[in-house]
Write a structure and sequence with these properties.
This is DUF1508 domain-containing protein. With 115 residues, the protein is of the alpha+beta class. It contains two helices and seven strands; from the N terminus they run βββαβββαβ.
């Protein structure tokens, strides 16, 4: 199952990534002003996964990527893939697991580890 991870960028804006069950990043959101915007976007993805489209492209370095779109709005951009098959597997993982994925919040400045 995939995982959504919310974190803070160096410019104090927020982003979220969707990672595979193996921990590889599948896509990253654009920068968002508020953490609540990340949470709202994640919930919208989980609630309406069938409404999103995946625009496939090829980068200048010949690697493949996709943009996750809702209508004309960019929701996220994928990592780069070496083959079209791996790109399709990334999209498939989103469709299959996003709805039931956990959300982790790494925006806290302090982490407490307990034994």
């Amino acid at each position: 199952m995939g995982t959504f991870v919310i974190s803070k960028r160096f410019d104090d804006r927020y982003k979220f990534v969707f990672t595979s069950r193996k921990g590889k990043t599948i896509f990253t959101s654009p920068s968002l002003e508020l953490k609540m915007d990340c949470e709202d976007s994640i919930e919208a993805i989980k609630a309406n996964i069938e409404k999103y489209t995946y625009v496939k492209s090829r980068a200048a370095n010949s690697k493949y990527f996709f943009k996750m779109m809702l209508d004309d709005a960019l929701v996220a951009t994928s990592r780069k893939y070496t083959t079209p098959l791996l790109l399709e597997k990334g999209i498939d993982e989103i469709i299959r697991t996003a709805v039931k994925s956990d959300v982790l919040d790494f925006t806290m400045n302090e982490f407490v580890f307990e034994d």
